UniProtKB/TrEMBL annotation:
It comes from the Bacteria. Residues 1-21 have a biased composition (Basic and acidic residues). InterPro entries: UsfY-like (IPR049606). It comes from Mycolicibacterium sediminis. This is UsfY protein. The chain crosses the membrane at residues 31-50, 56-77. The keyword Lyase does not apply. The keyword Transmembrane helix applies. Keywords: Membrane, Transmembrane, Transmembrane helix. Residues 1-27 are annotated as: Disordered.
Length: 107
């Protein structure tokens, strides 16, 4: 089968688009970590607001917003890179029925 570590799409095991993209594509890790930090920071900020720590709550919710935006942007750009590579792979590896074009992404 060869080395497929540079190809983020697992063509050999599935026909579904982007199945397992988060697991196979290591470039998603910083985005996933950023979103996770955003969730944790949001919960800490809400707990700080509930206990009366307004300044700590504002800081944590602000950090949460930045982490969500940064993580989401990273995931968006990584997904676009995967889609671009997917279209390049479809161009280099034509199917037997050549009149079938690459499917649009479902995600």
């Amino acid at each position: 089968m060869g080395d497929t570590s540079r190809d983020p799409v697992d063509h050999a095991r599935t026909t579904r688009q982007h199945a397992g993209e988060s697991m196979k594509n290591g470039h998603n890790a910083p985005g996933l970590i950023g979103v996770a930090l955003g969730v944790v920071s949001l919960f800490i900020g809400l707990a700080a607001f509930a206990s009366g720590g307004t300044m700590a709550g504002v800081i944590c919710v602000s950090v949460s917003a930045v982490a969500f935006i940064a993580g989401g942007t990273w995931l968006f750009l990584a997904h676009r890179r995967v889609r671009r590579q997917e279209l390049e792979w479809a161009d280099k590896n034509p199917r037997v029925d050549s009149d079938v074009v690459a499917q649009p992404p479902t995600s």
